[in-house]
Every structure is written in structure tokens, then in C-alpha cells.
Design goal:
heterotrimer, A alpha/beta (about 500), B mainly alpha (about 400), C mainly alpha (about 325), A: about 500 residues, alpha/beta, Rossmann fold, 6-stranded mixed β-sheet, 22 strands, about 30% helix, B: about 400 residues, mainly alpha, ABC transporter involved in vitamin B12 uptake, BtuC, two-stranded antiparallel sheet, 14 helices, about 0% strand, globular
């Protein structure tokens, strides 16, 4: 129950960055004790607005009132003093520090001479966690904790500093459905304890579940105020994008043919030295989309890397048709007709400072027709290729020579999708293909993936967005702790999938 | 017109850095009680033969500048190429000396060979020696992640002591007690542009004083090869990708380990070639002059000032050649230690380094690159520190 | 081989180990400077230049003031000023930190010789008197203990100071609130910033500290171990100190162990008159040793996560 007092009033906040008006005279009211959702596409300005509120960014004009009083927020210290706390999308945690050290940072308890008092830190954290029901071990190494617990550390950090207004920026992106449910319980408890919560998200289902009121932003402006219990997904999505949005992909039923990929008992290690794949086996046919559902960190990334040739398997076999491609490296896999849309778009899929043209041949820089005898680049062929692809895949940019860095996330992803699909692959490995991409581009990419399938490719889709997996896949393989725990039809109910994703629901459990 | 404007704006930062250096250097000179104008006048005299007050021959000064510049071009490439891969090759000095030693050894031991065999042999020998010297650091970096700044510097000192060992009472010493090697055979020498006779008078001096040699052509060819390799070669594409993003390079099928090693080998070959050319073209043997050689370090400033491009490196080498020649005149005429040139060099480096991020945000028009090529990428040097500081991981 | 035998015999003498500790301290001070600078996230390869400048100004000041303590102070200030330049260029201008470090080293090399030219007319810099040198301290009683006494309790005052600094830095970095904050700034400056910590102040402080320590090392070298300034007298010690820092995994005591190893190489070379091998080959010893050590590191040496990356506030 929220009362009518306003915890936060944002009036006319405007912020200009070079080349983009991130916030355009934004007004926002947040009532005390409510959970207020702030939604919008990437680049809508939500994060900027909250950064202004938290003092990380200075607005060009406008004012902010906290609990009815005008506030001067020059930096995070001011915001903290006003009782505002922010849990960032990318955690502000230091992996090598303990939980206690991370929570205490900036307000460390000390004994004489400035020595850090870890005993007192432990006591204070125990107090806090008991009060809010958030169990944590103060001496654990933060980097080794599962993501859900790391987020908990962030929340406790914020509470330790006396936050009454909590800003959570895309908190559920990395959580399992179970962890999300737990988080929502925590949030409701916090509200009962008198806190106010601002919840930034683009996940409409969750927004509908947890929030009291919703503010929609688009291109720096506020375009809608909605009351959660009176609205629905379609209405929010339309407001976010400005037009009617297709939330499900239209597709024909699949016509799977021969087996393209046969994976037998694949094992592999992760970067951290743990066993990431513990014996994965499956078949993938031409003309079907196999979706891998699972919370990030259960081995899916490593699976794709082994299949794409950027990680060596430690055991098992991979067959492409009748060829044993287990030991192939990235070049070999590509030559064999395996295309790879990597999950790390900005890190692996593109060289950001390279032009669009140069990025269009990433991975094929030694192959004809782009290279002469594997050593010299054929500029002409490269440019023709890039121009053709840019048009065909609707990459919005002035020309093929601009650096990829200057494009939006969606257009960057389109470069990668274009490059991988235009090679007419036998197998397409698509890892998180629409992460961080705006809705318009998501539609486009989904349609192209289905088109590839219809053209006969075998598609392996890995996504942390359960909706995407369910909407695109012809079969769903659920991944948990390095193994496939079940193969489900796409109509399988969401809670069954969620249960499987967290290790439950199998026979014998 | 647009190309000219781009060219000009691309020059703004390097030129500005040089101007800044001279101004700050002038302040330093003035503060210590000398006249900066005197110092700079003699510097300019030694550099381009203009404004000489003590009867120095202009043509000779220009000739000296070019002679100093020649090895810098190749050594500059030896620094610039690994930069692109995210590697700092501070070992140009050691690789240069390795090349010089190899050239001398081959040039003296195989003295009976005819020129058409011996000359290529000493040059190739220099390249191989330089490549090995750099390769050690490359292999260490690729296999153990050893920080190449530290390893190449250690190799520098090792090379210096090896040189001393060889020509001070060592196996490569000339009889007679001098700290020098025997001269290399005539067949191993690079001809000079002017006839080396004392009877022909050119620009007022006997022709033999002009030491400008055909090594200059080798240097310019080397710079061109570097440009082609980096911008038109598949390997160059991979090297630049590696320097920008290890992850993207691995995704593109590039073996990070192999590319690091190959890049260092090629770089070392360029630096070793510089050393061989210096011996074959100028000194014709090792002398104690090489104990205090700074080619490899000057090359760092050359590579940065030249913005990592072939044309830029040539221009920057000429500038530094002029500074070196000028420094000698400055010391003898104005009494200012030629080490002021080092100070100027450092100031140029600071100025460039501090401007770097600004330059990277704008796409730098590639000096001298043909417009039909794909858009040039900014020098990867600023991103280097991350790559240089993290150990190499390779799953392939 | 007789040379190896001679070296082994040397290893049994207290003299050698006494020299080793002194040589190690000469490396330890800049190494500690590197540790604290890089722990705060600023790559610093300029110790060589800062040491050189410290050495020069120590001699210059001592020749005029005839007071080794004041001269040392001057040397430390000189080192600190050079460090300030590196800090400003790296932090405020966000320059590439390795280039800036190299520039400092070149600047120092050029500046010192240039100043010799201006101040001493391209002649040698003079020698300081015995009484103006940083004194050796012989601890009464303890120094009489056989072997150990000579090695540990008969050293220059700077050695003792350095050992105190060693312990102090370890305590500060790993046990105090200040150290926690310094390390946070080097691992994740954004997290530190959002926690309200001033990233820039801490980084400036750390870099300047490295300059002070390197300046102190320069003073030790010029008016403690030696008694004059010779161009490039630091001879790569600043770079070896870097290797020690990496070997020690950016911890003070780890670096110390590495410095002992490298100091051993130097001490052996200093005794080259009793070893029948070319002194030039022996000179290679410290550098080759460094190479081997760096290459053979057991386990990857991982620097602070944000080391070398300029901090841009508000970037995601």
C-alpha cells in the first residue's frame, strides 16, 4: 500500500550528451512506499535519468525533490546522504574482495590507527541481514558467489548506507526465475519496512508482476504513465516503441531433415577451471531450431564456444554430417559451414574500431573471395559484399566506412547477423542474439532466424530470455549445471521450464 | 580538397606536439641560463643546413640528417607494427644491435664471397638475428604471458653486454687493442649515393664526406612493405584485430599465440635490418659508438609521432635524424649538451600521449593511404596497456 | 667449470649476502613504488627515470649543502615531481601510461646529462666527501653475531628505512581502511566512485608516493653506495624493479623476495674479480636472471583489474 506522499519528484530534467538528447524535460513522480517501474527500450534514457538521480551524472537543467525538499545531488555521496541507493545493472562489486569488504567500502569500521575492523563488519552485516532476511556470509569471496547472491550483496550494501529509496537497474537480467521470485519477495518485504523502490526494466511480464505504477520512456521523453493493475503487455510495448509490436514470431511448423550436428558426451572446462560441460549429447537437424534454455553460467556459453571452435573440448565428439569436427578450430568450423553469432557482441563479434566493411569479413579475412591466396585482402570484393549486406539486413548507418562503434546496439548486432547468415551456413549457432537490442531489431532478427531455418539451416539458439526460446524453438533443451536435463516441446509450461532450469523436476528428484 | 584538409588535420597533432616540445625545451634552456635561440639555431643548422654561423656546409648537414634517419625508419616500423597488435616493443635497441652483430660476423667471416651473395647475406643475417632477439620476447609473452615491456628491456641490456663482450677483448675484436671489430668485406658494403672519392667535389666538399647510402632505399622499401602488410594483408588485418580485441581476434579464427610470435619476429626483423644496414652502409664494422646507441629508443618516439603509419614514420624519422645531426652541431657550436635532444624527444612523447585519447575518438585520416581502402583504424597504442598487462589466454 | 665453483664459494661468504641485501634494497624501493602505484590502478614504468633524477639531485644538493639528509629530501622531492608529471599526464589527460612512463625515463636521461652540461660544463660531476655520504649504521651488539650480524646489522641507514617501509606498506595495503580503498580504486574504480571514494586523489597520492620512494632509492645509489653521479647510473634497476613487482604479484613481500634474487645477481657481478669469466658476460647476469624469473613464474601473475585503464566517470 503506498500513500500519497511523494518520495521522489523529478521536474523537467534535461541532459544532453554529444550527439544525443538522453533526457528531454522529464517529469516523474514516485510515491513513498510504492514500487515504481521505469520502462523503455535501450537508449530511451532510463539509466541516464537514474544516474542523474544518483548523482553520477549532472543534469543540464531541471530539479529534483526528495521527500518534498529540493535536493542538490552533486555526486553519489550526496545521493547516499539523502537516502538514495542504487543497485546497478552491472554490479559495482570488486570480485577479489570479501562480501564484508564490498559492503563496507566507503564506510569502513576501523580500530585505532585506521586498521580495518573486520569483526565489527561481520557483526553489522549479520544485523542487517537478519533485519531484512537476506542471508549472507561476510567472509565469502564476492567473485565466487552465484549471481543472485552477488545482487544480494549489492542490495545489502545499499541498505547499509541507510537507503530508503532504492533504484534497481535491470535487476533480473541475470537471475533464474526462482531467484527472480525470491528477489520480488525481498522487494515486497522492503516496501513493508517502509522503503520506496524504483525498478528499471524492459521485461514486461515482471514489471506487470511486481510494480504498482509504470512510467514509460521513449527517446528521452516520458510517453506514458500507467497503473499496473489496469494495463497489459501489449499496451506497454506499444508505448515503448510507438507502434504496434509483434510479440510473437509468426512461423510455419518446422520440417526437419537430416541430422546436421551430432554431439556425443561433450565435456569441457570453463575459464575459471571448473567443469563447464559434463557430458552433453544431442542431435540437431537441418531445418529446425533447437533452443537451449537455462540460466547463464550453466555451461551454455562454453557449449557454443566448443561448437564454434573457440574452446577446446576435453572429451566427447562432435559430428557434422559424417565428419568429426571435434578438434576443429574457429577457422575450420567456419570453413565447414558453421556460422556463429557470439553472445559477446561488442567483445567478440565485432572489432568496434573497424569499419562496417572490415567487420563484415571478420573471420573470413583469409578466405576467397576476400583474400588473394590467403595473404592479401581483395578490397573491391570486400566493399561489394559489405554494401550488399548492409542493404539486405537494413543496417542503419551513413556508409560502410563508419566504425562499428558509432552504431546502435541493434545495428551492431545486425552486422553480425548479416555476416553470419549471408554465408549460407549449414549450421547457425546463435547465442543471445537479441540481448540489448531494441524491439524493432529484435523482430527483424527473429524473422531472419526463422528464415534461415526454412532455408534448411540447422539452428542452435541459446538465450537467457525464456520467452525468446519458447517463441522461436521447435524443440527446447534445458541446460543445468553442464548437462541437458530434458528436451521439451516449445509449448511446455513456463514454470516447468523454470523448475528444470534450476535442477528440479527430473525423475528421481 | 577534402583529402588535403584531412591530411592537414591529421598532421595537426604531431606538429603541435613538436612545437610544444620546442617551446618547453626552450624554457628549460633559458631557465638554466643559456640562450634558447642560440641552441635552436645551431640545432636547425645541423638539421637542415640553414642558418649555420660557423661555416658548416649545408649539404653535409642534410646528408648527415638523412644518414641518421635511415635506420630510424626501419626501427620505427619495428615499434609501430607490434603496437598494432597491442604489444610494446621496447626492445628495438637490442634487436638493432643483434642485427649489427650478425651483419659484422657474416661480413667478416665470409669475406671471400662475391657481393651479389654477401650483401644480401649480411642483410638477411641481420634480419634473422633481430627476429630471434624479438622472438624470444614474443615466445615468452605468448607462452607464459611474460610482460613484453620487461622482457624486451632485459634483452636490450643483454645485447649491450654481449656487444661489449665481443669487441672488448673478445672473439670479434680487431687486433690492435681498439674496441672495434675488423671491418666487413667490401662485398658486404652498401654503396653510397655519391662516389667515395676525394677528388670529386660536390657542394664544396670532397664527395667522400657525404655518407648518404643506398640503405635509404632499403628503408623506404621496408616502410612500404610495412604499409602493405598492415593494411592490405590478411595477417595485417588479424594483427590489428588482435590489438583492438583479443576476443574478437579469437572469434575470427586468429591464433593469439601464433600472431604474437609472428608479429614480434617480423618486428625484430625490421629492427635487425636497421642494424645491418647501419653497419653495411655507414660504419662497416662494430665500434664503441654502438655502446651508446639510442636508435631503438628513438624509434619509439618515431613510431608514436608518426602515428603508426608508414608515411608518418618516414617523416618522423627525418625529423629525428635532423635532431640528431643538429644536436651534434648544437653541442660543438652553442655548448649545449646534445642530450637536450632527448629532452625534446620526451616532451614530444608526453604531448602525443596526452592527446592520444582525443585523437582516437576521431577517426584519424591515414596519412598517405589510398582513399579506396577501407577506413583506417586508429593506432591501438592506447588500448595496448590492457593487452600488455593481461596474460595471454588461448583456447585454440 | 671453475667459474661455477668460484660462484658457489662466493655464496658462502657473508660479504656476498651483505652486498646482496644492499643491492636488493636498491631494487626494493622502486619496486614498492610500483606496487602501490599499480595497486591504485596506474601503470608506472617510470621508476628508472625517477630514480635517476633522484640520484642526480642528491649529488647536486649534497655537493652544495654538505648534508646527506637534506640532499636525500631534495632527491625525494625531485622523484616526487617527476611522478607528479606522470600522474597528471596519466590521470588528468588519460594518456597511455606506458608511453608516459617511457617519456619520463627518456626525459630523465636527457635532463640529467643536459644539466651536467649546464652546471659542470660537460665535465664530470664532483665527488661528495666521505662525511657527506649517507652513513652506514653498525648496530651495536647485534652486528657482532657471526655471518648474520654482518649481513643484517651492518648496513646503510637507507636499508633499515626501506625495511620499515616494506612492513608499513604491507600493513597499510592489506589491513587498513586506506589500503582497502586504494585497492578498490585499482580493481574497480567505478565501484569505488559509487561508494563515494575519490578515485583521483588516491591515484595521485599513490603515484607520488612511488616517486618519493624512487627518489630515495636514487639518493641511496648516488650518495650512499656511490659518491658521485654518472650518466645512466641506474642501469635498468627501475625496470628490474618492475619485474620484481610482477613476480611478487603486486605484494610488498613478494616483490622483496624477487629483489633478493636479483640483488644476488648484482652482488655476484660486483665480485667478478674473483670469478674467472668475462666481466661482460657476468654483467648480463641480473638481466638474464630477470628474464628467466619472469618467464618461469609459477601461476599467472594477475595485476589489479583496472591497472592501466584511465578512469572515466559515468562510463558504463
Amino acid at each position: 500500500m503506498s500513500d500519497e506522499r511523494l518520495a521522489v519528484e523529478i521536474r523537467g530534467i534535461t541532459k544532453q550528451f554529444p550527439g544525443v538528447l538522453a533526457n528531454d524535460h522529464v517529469d516523474l513522480d514516485v510515491r513513498a512506499g510504492e514500487i515504481h517501474a521505469l520502462v523503455g527500450e535501450n537508449g530511451a534514457g532510463k539509466s541516464t535519468l537514474m544516474n542523474v538521480l544518483y548523482g553520477l551524472v549532472h543534469a543540464d537543467s531541471g530539479e529534483i525533490l526528495i521527500n518534498g525538499k529540493t535536493a542538490r545531488i552533486g555526486g553519489p555521496r550526496d545521493a547516499i546522504a539523502l537516502g538514495i541507493g542504487m543497485v546497478h545493472q552491472h554490479f559495482m562489486l570488486i570480485p577479489v574482495f570479501t562480501v564484508g569488504e564490498n559492503i563496507m567500502l566507503g564506510r569502513e569500521p576501523t580500530t585505532a590507527g585506521g586498521i580495518y575492523d573486520s569483526a565489527r563488519a561481520r557483526r553489522e552485516i549479520a544485523d542487517l541481514t537478519k533485519r531484512y532476511g537476506l542471508a549472507l556470509n561476510a567472509d565469502a569471496r564476492t567473485g565466487e558467489l552465484p549471481v543472485g547472491l552477488q545482487q544480494r550483496v549489492e542490495i545489502v550494501k545499499v541498505l547499509y548506507r541507510g537507503a530508503n529509496i532504492l533504484i534497481l537497474d535491470e535487476p533480473t537480467g541475470v537471475l533464474t526465475p526462482q531467484e527472480t521470485t525470491e528477489l520480488f519477495v525481498v522487494l515486497r518485504d522492503l516496501v513493508k519496512a517502509g522503503k520506496t523502490i524504483i525498478f528499471i526494466s524492459h521485461k514486461l511480464k515482471e514489471v506487470l508482476e511486481i510494480s504498482d505504477r509504470i512510467t514509460v520512456m521513449r527517446r528521452g521523453k516520458v510517453v506514458g504513465h500507467l497503473i499496473t493493475k489496469d494495463t497489459n503487455e501489449q499496451e506497454i510495448a506499444t508505448a515503448m516503441v510507438g507502434r504496434a509490436v509483434l510479440l510473437r514470431v509468426d512461423k510455419q511448423p518446422a520440417k526437419p531433415k537430416d541430422v546436421a550436428f551430432k554431439v556425443e558426451n561433450l565435456t569441457a572446462m570453463s575459464d575459471a577451471g571448473t567443469q563447464a560441460l559434463k557430458g552433453v549429447s544431442f542431435e540437431l537437424r537441418q531445418g529446425e531450431i533447437l533452443g537451449i534454455a537455462g540460466v547463464e553460467g550453466n555451461g551454455q556459453s562454453e557449449l557454443v564456444e566448443v561448437l564454434a571452435g573457440t574452446r577446446r573440448a576435453t572429451g566427447g565428439k562432435v559430428w557434422l554430417g559424417d565428419k568429426d569436427v571435434t578438434a576443429y578450430d574457429a577457422r575450420g568450423e567456419r570453413a565447414a559451414g558453421i556460422a556463429h553469432i557470439p553472445e559477446d557482441r561488442r567483445g567478440a563479434g565485432l572489432v568496434l574500431n573497424y569499419s562496417i566493411a572490415e567487420n563484415m569479413i571478420l573471420g573470413r579475412q583469409r578466405d576467397a573471395p576476400f583474400a588473394w591466396r590467403h595473404v592479401l585482402l581483395v578490397i573491391d570484393a570486400i566493399r561489394k559484399w559489405a554494401t550488399r549486406l548492409m542493404k539486405e539486413f537494413d543496417v542503419r548507418a551513413p556508409n560502410i566506412d563508419v566504425p562499428a562503434r558509432s552504431l546502435s546496439g541493434g545495428n551492431q548486432q545486425k552486422i553480425i547477423v548479416a555476416r553470419e547468415m549471408a554465408s549460407q551456413p549449414r549450421v547457425l549457432l546463435a547465442a543471445q542474439p537479441t540481448r540489448g537490442v531494441d524491439i524493432g531489431a529484435i523482430e527483424f532478427i527473429h524473422r531472419r532466424i526463422v528464415a534461415e531455418r526454412d532455408a534448411g539451416a540447422a539452428v542452435l539458439l541459446v538465450s537467457a530470455e525464456l520467452d525468446e526460446v519458447r517463441s522461436l524453438s521447435d524443440r527446447i533443451a534445458v541446460f543445468y549445471e553442464g548437462q541437458i536435463v530434458s528436451i521439451e516441446p516449445p509449448e511446455a509450461p513456463e514454470d516447468r521450464l523454470g523448475l528444470l532450469m534450476t535442477g528440479g523436476g527430473r525423475s528421481g528428484h | 580538397m577534402a583529402t588535403v584538409r584531412r591530411f592537414a588535420s591529421g598532421l595537426a597533432m604531431p606538429v603541435g606536439s613538436v612545437v610544444f616540445a620546442f617551446v618547453a625545451g626552450g624554457v628549460l634552456v633559458a631557465v638554466t641560463g643559456a640562450n634558447p635561440l642560440d641552441a635552436y639555431q645551431s640545432l636547425v643548422c645541423g638539421g637542415i643546413g640553414v642558418g649555420c654561423t660557423q661555416g658548416e656546409n649545408s649539404a653535409l648537414q642534410i646528408s648527415n640528417s638523412i644518414v641518421f634517419a635511415t635506420p630510424l625508419i626501419m626501427a620505427g616500423v619495428a615499434v609501430a607494427l607490434p603496437f598494432r597488435a597491442g604489444l610494446f616493443n621496447i626492445g628495438g635497441e637490442g634487436q638493432f644491435i643483434a642485427g649489427a652483430i650478425a651483419c659484422t660476423v657474416i661480413g667478416t667471416k665470409f669475406a671471400s664471397w662475391p657481393a651479389f651473395l654477401l650483401l644480401p647475406a649480411v642483410l638477411i643475417g641481420g634480419m634473422v638475428a633481430g627476429a630471434v632477439w624479438a622472438g624470444i620476447a614474443g615466445v615468452l609473452k605468448a607462452t607464459t604471458g611474460a610482460h613484453e615491456v620487461v622482457t624486451t628491456i632485459m634483452l636490450n641490456y643483454t645485447a649491450q653486454w654481449l656487444l661489449r663482450f665481443l669487441i672488448i677483448g673478445g672473439p670479434l675484436q680487431l687486433q690492435g687493442g681498439f674496441s672495434a671489430s675488423p671491418p666487413i668485406a667490401a662485398g658486404a658494403r652498401l654503396p653510397t649515393f655519391f662516389p667515395s672519392s676525394n677528388s670529386t667535389i660536390i657542394f664544396g666538399l670532397p664527395a667522400s664526406v657525404y655518407r648518404v647510402h643506398t640503405g635509404l632505399i632499403i628503408a623506404l622499401v621496408a616502410a612500404a612493405v610495412f604499409a602493405v602488410l598492415l593494411w592490405r594483408g590478411s595477417l595485417g588485418y588479424e594483427i590489428r584485430a588482435l590489438g583492438q580485441s583479443q576476443k574478437a581476434a579469437r572469434y575470427a579464427g586468429v591464433s593469439v599465440r601464433r600472431t604474437i610470435i609472428v608479429t614480434m619476429l617480423i618486428a625484430g626483423a625490421f629492427a635487425g635490418l636497421a642494424g645491418a644496414v647501419q653497419i653495411a652502409g655507414v660504419d662497416h664494422g662494430l665500434t664503441d659508438k654502438y655502446f651508446s646507441d639510442t636508435t631503438g629508443f628513438d624509434a619509439i618516439a618515431v613510431a608514436l609521432l608518426g602515428l603508426g603509419s608508414a608515411v608518418g614514420i618516414v617523416l618522423a624519422s627525418l625529423l629525428f635524424g635532423m635532431l640528431q645531426s643538429g644536436g651534434a652541431v648544437m653541442q660543438s657550436d652553442a655548448g649545449i649538451s646534445s642530450s637536450l635532444v632527448l629532452v625534446l624527444q620526451a616532451l614530444i612523447l608526453f604531448s602525443i600521449a596526452a592527446n592520444f585519447l582525443g585523437a582516437i575518438v576521431r577517426v584519424i585520416p591515414g596519412l598517405g593511404r589510398r582513399p579506396s581502402a577501407p577506413a583506417p583504424t586508429a593506432p591501438g597504442a592506447a588500448l595496448v596497456t590492457e593487452a600488455a598487462a593481461t596474460p595471454v589466454e588461448d583456447h585454440g | 667449470m671453475t667459474a661455477i665453483n668460484q660462484i658457489l664459494h662466493l655464496l658462502l661468504t657473508a660479504n656476498l649476502w651483505q652486498a646482496t641485501l644492499a643491492a636488493a634494497i636498491l631494487l626494493l624501493l622502486p619496486a614498492l613504488g610500483g606496487v602501490i602505484s599499480e595497486r591504485s590502478g596506474v601503470v608506472n614504468i617510470a621508476m628508472e627515470g625517477m630514480m635517476l633524477v633522484g640520484a642526480f639531485f642528491a649529488v647536486y644538493a649534497d655537493l652544495h649543502l654538505h648534508n646527506p639528509w637534506l640532499a636525500t629530501l631534495v632527491a625525494m622531492i625531485a622523484g616526487g615531481l617527476m611522478a607528479l608529471v606522470h600522474a597528471v599526464v596519466s590521470i588528468r589527460f588519460r594518456a597511455d601510461q606506458i608511453v608516459s612512463g617511457i617519456a619520463i625515463n627518456i626525459f630523465a636521461a636527457g635532463l640529467t646529462v643536459f644539466l651536467i652540461g649546464r652546471l659542470y660544463g660537460l665535465q664530470d660531476v664532483g665527488h661528495i666527501g666521505q662525511s657527506d655520504a649517507l652513513p652506514t649504521i653498525t648496530v651495536p651488539g647485534l652486528s657482532s653475531i657471526p655471518f648474520v650480524g654482518q649481513v643484517f646489522f651492518n648496513q646503510n641507514v637507507v636499508v633499515y628505512v626501506a625495511l620499515v617501509v616494506l612492513v608499513l606498506m604491507h600493513v597499510v595495503l592489506f589491513r587498513t581502511k586506506l589500503g582497502l580503498r586504494i585497492r578498490s580504486v585499482g580493481e574497480h574504480p567505478q565501484a569505488a566512485d559509487t561508494a563515494g571514494i575519490n578515485v583521483f586523489t588516491l591515484r595521485y597520492g599513490a603515484v607520488i608516493t612511488s616517486g618519493l620512494l624512487s627518489g630515495l632509492a636514487g639518493a641511496f645509489l648516488a650518495i650512499g653506495v656511490s659518491n658521485t653521479f654518472v650518466p645512466n647510473m641506474t642501469d635498468g634497476r627501475g625496470y628490474i624493479a618492475l619485474a620484481a613487482m610482477i613476480f611478487g604479484k603486486w605484494t610488498p613481500f613478494g616483490a622483496f623476495i624477487a629483489c633478493i634474487i636479483f640483488g644476488l645477481g648484482e652482488a655476484i657481478y660486483a665480485n667478478n674479480s674473483v670469478i674467472s669469466a668475462s666481466p661482460y658476460l657476468l654483467s648480463m647476469l641480473p638481466y638474464v636472471l630477470t628474464l628467466i624469473v619472469i618467464a618461469g613464474l609459477i601461476g599467472r601473475s594477475i595485476p589489479p583489474a583496472a591497472d592501466g585503464l584511465p578512469y572515466v566517470p559515468g562510463s558504463e
